[in-house]
## 1
Amino acid sequence: MDDLKLISDEGLAKLRMQLLTALTHVTVFTPGSLQEEWTKCGKLNCHCASAGDSGHGPLYSVVRYVDGKTRKQRLPAELVDKVRQRIGAWNDFQAICARLADVNAEESRRLILGSDGARFPWVGNQWNQTGSDASRFSRRAGRGWREGDRIALGGRDIRI
């Protein structure tokens, strides 16, 4: 995200449009990852029982997290290449979304700090308040906001 600090406001807007356009091209994907397994059946006369044999396989599965639990779905061998492409598209989708989130965080940082780099003009005695946030705000009220401070903005912590 540090590289975004070097881009102008117009450059950020252009980057946002490029990312949104790229996002429209990633429409078919499979969330998760592809797992390849080799198993041993446990029969004494089977080839997999000999030392150094990798066992039976490969067996493929799509693995993903659903509601905090790992879910695994077996995959027929003929679908492996197609699902591998769809999982690659999922990874692209995640990368585009992460970069878009970084662009939004940088724009928010600039909004808060001002385009000329000025710090919060409203910081002063009005931040000396009581309550659960008193220590957080009164600590900053005396010195103002500085580079490196973290704030929560839109459910995401950003560093200014």
Note: The chain has one domain: 2-118.
## 2
Amino acid sequence: MFRVCLISVAMTAATVGVANADEVWTDEFGENVAYDRDVGTTAILRGPHDQWFYVDRLAGNYANRTGTFHGYWAVMPDDADGEMIGCASTLTLADGRSTPFWGPIEVDFDGTAFPTGFTMRSGFCPDQQGEYASQQVGTFNSFRYTPVTADSPK
């Protein structure tokens, strides 16, 4: 009986951990972004290269993804490579982690519910340090993501 109970608890925990993992998108380079979890009103997406995306108002919103969603990209200090330029400020994120490697994002979905693609524009923190900081602040890079579904080419 105890063993059956442990297996049931383990299966439930595994299911809860991947509740949103069925939402995965890919960019033109084959890099994936996956819906990881919700914290309050913020959806947390895991991107390539140890990058995280914190999207406000997206948590629990599976059917009304209209308008522009704002948030932040972040790389945790332990994951930052030696070439990353940090900000003078440290941002505390929705999940309580803090990092000096961050910038704003804007997300616009193509449709209201998954599977739908989106465009993400990412920028740099307003107080970025380094030789080219003044050239980067205020600029945005645009990335296009398409949904990965069972019908997606392998």
Note: Residues 99 and 111 are 32 Å apart (CA to CA).
## 3
Amino acid sequence: MFSKYLLIFVVCLGLLNSSNSSAAVNYATYQTVTKSKKAKAKTAVSAKKSKKSKSKRGSKSKKSKSTTRIVKDSAQLKQESDSKTASLQMISDNQIKTRVADSIRKTSLLNDNNNKEGYYATMFSSQSKSTTIQTLEGTASVFKSLSGWDDGKFYILTNQMPIGTIVRITTPELKSICAKVINSLPDVGGAIQYRLSDAAATILGISNKIFKVSVTY
């Protein structure tokens, strides 16, 4: 009988030890899982902080680059504006100098009372003595030329007479100069028969773009 109770006691003791061992194993497993979750959570938090930090640094870097670009763009625009202003000022100064020079040349030419009809006046007189004089009426305009301002050599373009002919040009106000035909007149539809050098037009007191003249040759 005693041995029977002893056997039961031993069996119960074994079951109790087994239960305690299983509980210990389960607790250890629980602790391991809990530590693993905490470690993962810390890693995730650290990764988020790192990402936010990088994002902030990236944002600051972008702002810095953007500010630098704006500063550079502003400086470049100012430089371009200053350059454009200087260029416009130079053009304006050159235009003023040109107008002043033209005004001086015109004044000098108009104040010159010697040989008013110009360099070719003597040649026209000699030519008119040996040939028959003809006079044509027509419409004229002006072309720019460096000649005539200082040397009194006035020129005319026309298809009415041969190149090299010396002519006398007279306005309705009876002002006249002598000029040399240096070239034919480009085709302009027949509306204009003559083109005078600008120095010749100045001597004749012409300010209109198109005007009437009489040409004697």
Note: The chain has a mean pLDDT of 75.
